Amino acid sequence: MISDYKKPMYQLPEADFLCRKSQTSAYLRSYTATWEPPADGFFYLEYSYSRTHWYRLNGGCRIEVSALPGEVLSHKEELASPRHPVITLPLSIIRTLQARYGAPEPIVLASREDIDLPGDSGRLPEKITVTYTNGMTEERPLIWKPDETWEAGKGSKKNPRMTGFIQTPDCAAPLASHRADPYIYKHTDGKYYFIGSHTDAGHNLDGRYQYLYLILRCADTLEGLTDNSGRYTEKIIYEKAPLEGADGFLKSPHLWAPEIHFINGGWYVYYTASISDTSSWRIRPHCLACTGPDPMKDNWVEKGPVRTTVEGDIAFTDFSLDHTYLCHNGQDYFLWAQKTDNISDIFIARLENPWTICTPAVKLTRPEYSWELHGFPVNEGPAVLKHGGKIFVTFSASGTDAMYCMGLLYAEETADLLNAASWTKCPYPVFQSSPTTGYYGPGHNSFTRSDDDSEDLIIYHCRQEERYLGEDDYQPLYDAGRNAYIGKVFWNPDGMPSFSVPGASIAARAEDLKVR
To answer: Residue 185: is it exposed, middle or buried by C-beta count within 10 angstroms (0-12/13-18/19+)?
Structure first.
């Protein structure tokens, strides 16, 4: 990322779905949520800059009327109307709402370097400076191609006019089908390793066939990990047969949320599994260790459930899952989700070795906002990202249907990470469903770096169906429709991350990627 530059920039046309520089007002309306029964004292709200593109506040979850600013409450009758009239408000009021309930807007190119193309014998630039609508500036690669639309007589096959194409961070969508909780690790040699919760689309919604295998995939490039690319190797490193329940029916062993890590010179995979022979739901974090230096060729052995040396501690005493690893200032940490009082919280502790924690479990976050309470009160799936002197931890919230979304914790890198007071929690979801792109329930993410190490990327799963919301007999956990996707992490001028919108491009128009 470039923080200081003096290059001449060409301003791209403002996107009609985003706020224009001259804009002083915007629009608000309520809407009817089909997935929850109406409740007095709450609204579902969305805003727009153009009255055509609408963004749902608070992750699409209800907002308490009494918490709204007075300028909005003055329109209470209109917001309560089943006709959902559009209300015009000062832009400053929309900004106040966004600070409380989020701004789930796409981030796109705002300007690009104004390049003076060289003469016939000159070398065309391979990179171009761009800025984004969130204020971020960076260099992106350029690829030049002959312009086939160049007017006859103005160019020739020997000396055609060239058009540059700004390269996007887009990968295949999806990267991997039927893999939830995707985790990608980039090793020091540049190789990528991918693993995720494996679902069987051929037996969709039948729990007996879901989450039976841990399958590790390796490729030399990020794009090489794509399904059917022919450029990766794949290996089942662990499997577990369905459990025979006390009722005589077979049940999934719930091999969930695997992650591969290289810790102190060795390869390890964390995963969730049941510790019972009959119940799917007595789940705990487990650890596998590779017996050699090559995780694709050498054997993997079980180290058993992750345990604690702290006698009487709460760690792993109840439903526990969704673990990750953090190394910071020479210390190894373990983060995981665990139910207390039937509420899923996120904890942290220090590791003695990859399968043993040695300090008391410290609770970092508990569900408190409505976007964390839909379906079930859930915080789970922590993922770590370091940047600009801060440590960020994203987490997933609510039940695993289309209302699943992501929250954010952060701490200063100099802080005591085992002190809950060191961490700040954003009051709104930072990544949520997008009806515009057709991506629903984004969550349980991980982070990696691009092939050239120039940018941070978010790996997440999403659904492409919203229709399951509110269907009583639907079990989203056994739906194989969660696929793995890759998106770009943008950095705001204040050092905070922004994840744009799932499935969105970095360009408002295809023309914005062309340089002539």
So the answer is: buried
- Comparing CA positions, the residue from 327, 258, 268, 323 lying closest to residue 295 is 268
Name the helix (H) or strand (E) containing 91.
helix 91-101
Helices (H), 141-204: none
Cβ atoms of 165 and 515 within 8 Å: the answer is yes
Residue pair 321/259 in contact by the 8 Å Cβ criterion: no
Check if 380 is active-site.
Answer: yes
318 is catalytic: no
For 315, the token pair is: 């760690």
- 418, 400, 324: which is closest to 363 by C-alpha? 418
- Predicted TM-score of the model (pTM): 0.95
> What is the DSSP secondary-structure string of 475-499?
-GGG-TT-EEEEEEPEE-TTS-EE-
Nearest to 502 by CA among 450, 463, 451, 447: 463
| pLDDT tens across the length of the chain (516 residues) | 444 457 899 999 999 999 999 999 999 999 998 877 778 999 999 999 999 999 999 999 999 999 999 999 999 999 999 999 999 999 999 999 999 999 999 999 999 999 887 766 678 999 999 999 999 999 999 999 987 655 544 444 545 688 999 999 878 899 999 999 999 999 999 999 999 999 999 999 999 999 999 999 999 999 999 999 999 999 999 999 999 988 889 999 999 999 999 999 999 999 999 999 999 999 999 999 999 999 999 999 999 999 999 999 999 999 999 999 999 999 999 999 999 999 999 999 999 999 999 999 999 999 999 999 998 999 999 999 999 999 999 999 999 888 999 999 999 999 999 999 999 999 999 999 999 999 999 999 999 999 999 999 999 999 988 866 556 667 788 999 999 999 999 999 999 999 999 999 999 999 999 998
* Token pair recorded at residue 338: 């665990």
Of 380, 456, 466, 479, catalytic? 380
CB neighbour list of residue 364: distance below 8 Å, 6 or more residues apart: 335, 345, 346, 347, 348, 382, 393, 409, 420, 423
Question: How far is residue 483 from each of residues 60, 272, 442, 471, measured CA to CA in Å?
Answer: 21, 19, 10, 21
Instruction: Give the three-state DSSP class for 370.
Output: helix
- And the tokens for 63? 């907002």
> Pairing mode, if any, of strands 45-48 and 405-412?
unpaired
Backbone angles phi, psi at 58, to 5 degrees: 60, 35
* Alpha-carbon gap, residue 200 to 421, rounded angstroms: 42
Strand partners, 334: 325, 349
Query: Which residues pair with residue 88 across a beta bridge?
Result: 27
Q: What is the DSSP string of 158-176?
A: SS--EEEEEPP----SSSB
CB atoms near residue 56 (< 10 Å): 21
Question: Among the options 36, 105, 113, 181, which is catalytic?
Answer: 181
